[in-house]
Amino acid sequence: MQSPTHTATNLDTPLAELSHEMARLVDRFVPEDGLHLTAIPGLKLARATSPSLPIQTVYDPCLCIIAQGRKEIRLGDELYVYDPLNYLVASVVLPVTGRVIEASPEAPYLSLALEIDPALISSLLTEMPPIPAPDAASQRALFLDRLDPRLLDAVIRLLRLLETPRDIAMLAPLALREIFYRMLLSPQGHRLHEVVVADGQSQRISRAIEWLRKNFDQPLRIEELAREVNLSPSTLHHRFKAVTAFSPLQYQKQLRLQEARRLMLCDNLEAAAASYRVGYESPSQFSREYSRLFGAPPQRDIARLRQAAQSQVAS
């Protein structure tokens, strides 16, 4: 069966001028390739001068906007491709694979990622009229939406505050408030609404995700997790997969393998030690599942990553 693909098409629109302005700002603040923190809490900027290999990572809830270039994100068997006229949102914590697919030294990939603050979303919802849900709402927590000029204008005003750091504490909260307000008004705004509704099913799935993040190295018993979030085991399984594209067990496996990779790469742990640390009892099972996710056994994969990092530094 062919994997679903969600594609954002690059067309000539009035957004072009705003996108150029955003690209100018990101290019100014991140002269080197990589993902960079900024003085604005929760805001990261990225630059790449060439297409990248697929990178497995875990997205926290965030808004992602591209100023220049294109990127693809894979969630399970689904592929999301987006560009400067469309933005990507992860409304819960999701293990994904990302790849920059359009970038060059002359026209580098330039983007930003902004953390989504559930408390701010909740605050806005108390002051806004009710947000109607569409007749056939998708439950997936990763989605694309068309970029509205008013949303991008608010994002650019947030970026400009990096030019005057003394203004960030006072004015960034105002810009963030407008950004999330515009997102809630968008055609997909109900998806953000759903994950902050107290005791709603989407909120319960968010709680299940948080439990798994804190306990990913522990044996998973679906009945216990279902009781933890006040859902039946069958409802938990169905809703969890609808939101994340993974079953709870598959989701836990993703978290375990990515943490093991980090431990080997950053803390120099051997594969067997890393596998035990993240909850595996069988090193051979760990190696098989690691190879399926990352495309190579642990030792070869880590050597490849280190070689790629050294090549990037040398260049």
Automatic annotation (TrEMBL):
<dbReference type="InterPro" id="IPR009594">
    <property type="entry name" value="Tscrpt_reg_HTH_AraC_N"/>
</dbReference>
<feature type="domain" description="HTH araC/xylS-type">
    <location>
        <begin position="206"/>
        <end position="304"/>
    </location>
</feature>
<dbReference type="Pfam" id="PF12833">
    <property type="entry name" value="HTH_18"/>
</dbReference>
<dbReference type="InterPro" id="IPR009057">
    <property type="entry name" value="Homeodomain-like_sf"/>
</dbReference>
<keyword id="KW-0804">Transcription</keyword>
<dbReference type="GO" id="GO:0003700">
    <property type="term" value="F:DNA-binding transcription factor activity"/>
</dbReference>
<keyword id="KW-0805">Transcription regulation</keyword>
<protein>
    <submittedName>
        <fullName>Transcriptional regulator, AraC family</fullName>
    </submittedName>
</protein>
<dbReference type="InterPro" id="IPR018060">
    <property type="entry name" value="HTH_AraC"/>
</dbReference>
<dbReference type="Pfam" id="PF06719">
    <property type="entry name" value="AraC_N"/>
</dbReference>
<dbReference type="GO" id="GO:0043565">
    <property type="term" value="F:sequence-specific DNA binding"/>
</dbReference>
